[in-house]
Design a protein that fits this description.
Number of strands: 14
Shape: globular
Number of helices: 10
Oligomer: single chain
Structural class: alpha+beta
Strand content: 25-35%
Helix content: 25-40%
Length: 333
């Protein structure tokens, strides 16, 4: 059940403004595609994203960012961002979901920003990783992260009016998923392995009529919350459970009074309908096309989502660098 928050609904579609932010980060990072330097990719995206966010009309607080202040000079957790206007919001950023993908010249990297009214984004930071299951609106009430893989796939297939053999499950290609992959195959479903980028994969699983029907497996906690913002806009469902990496992390959480068996639903992570999400492709993947440069400019493809209206927009844009540079004190491409 949602908590009542003393605020006026956000009337303007900030998602359209956030697209400018992810476009800037994507264009800055894409210059380092395939050059083998993750640090350069990340620094370029963070700098461009931080600069562009500063012009958005809001009083934002970063709740998911690049880490603590002593580790990250920009977009650190707790940083105030925006132009200081009255609108008080939480901001979650992943300047590049798939830094390794960009550095290696591989497909599927995106730049993302999620926004919700103040105090409604909740990230269980006690754990770096969580076990997740994501699906779209047709099967949103049919998943149970505590159930077996076979049972979940059977219920999802029934809700989607498919055979289990027609379902495609996306899983991060990691040694920790060896048993999960075996269980999916034993249930008769198809498996799509990805090397990185589970925000993009989660969105694919939540969107209707896509190749992917469900995401399963262990991935980053912060990525799960950012994905939850997009999933909430789409109308799908995500369930997560803590996945302690070792006994020390488990015992530290238990000592702090954390219930490691708690199941986090979409509403536990994003407790509001005033949610906005934007993403821009960096390297071309199935969700979004990557940045394509031409003489004097670039072409981008982005997503803009607004939860209250349920609208999901694909935005193709052409950027003229000469004109952009005249509008900016700093290059954002």
């Amino acid at each position: 059940m949602k908590t009542a928050h003393p605020h006026q609904p956000i009337e303007r579609n900030i998602a359209m403004e956030l697209v400018r932010v992810t476009e800037a980060a994507a264009m800055a990072a894409a210059r380092y595609l395939g050059r083998g330097d993750k640090k350069l990719v990340d620094e370029a995206a963070v700098t461009a994203m931080r600069y562009t966010l500063g012009y958005v009309r809001m009083d934002g607080v970063v709740v998911i960012g690049e880490g603590e202040k002593d580790q990250a000079p920009m977009l650190y957790i707790g940083e105030r961002i925006g132009d200081g206007s009255d609108l008080q919001v939480d901001i979650a950023v992943d300047p590049i979901d798939g830094t390794t993908l960009v550095a290696r010249g591989l497909p599927g990297a995106i730049s993302t920003v999620a926004l919700a009214d103040r105090g409604t984004m909740h990230c269980p930071n006690e754990f770096a990783y969580m076990n997740k299951i994501v699906t779209g609106v047709e099967a949103k009430d049919c998943i149970d992260i505590n159930a077996s893989v076979a049972e979940n796939l059977k219920n999802i297939a029934k809700a989607k009016k498919k055979n289990v053999s027609e379902l495609t499950v996306v899983v991060l290609d990691r040694p920790r998923h060896e048993q999960l992959i075996s269980d999916i195959r034993s249930a008769g479903a198809r498996v799509k392995l990805i090397s990185d980028g589970d925000i993009s994969a989660s969105i694919e699983a939540a969107l209707p009529e896509r190749e992917i029907d469900v995401l399963m497996g262990i991935g980053g906690t912060t990525e799960g919350v950012i994905a939850a913002a997009a999933i909430h806009c789409i109308g799908g469902s995500i369930q997560c459970k803590a996945w302690p990496r070792d006994d020390k992390e488990r015992n530290t959480a238990i000592t702090a009074g954390i219930d490691i068996n708690k199941v986090y639903n979409t509403d536990d992570l994003i407790d509001s309908d005033d949610v906005f999400f934007a993403a821009t492709g960096v390297s071309s993947g199935e969700l979004l096309k990557g940045v394509r440069y031409f003489s004097g400019g670039a072409q981008t493809q982005s997503l803009a989502m607004r939860c209250r209206s349920g609208t999901v927009r694909w935005i193709d844009a052409w950027h003229n660098f000469d004109r952009l540079d005249k509008l900016s004190f700093s290059k954002v491409h």
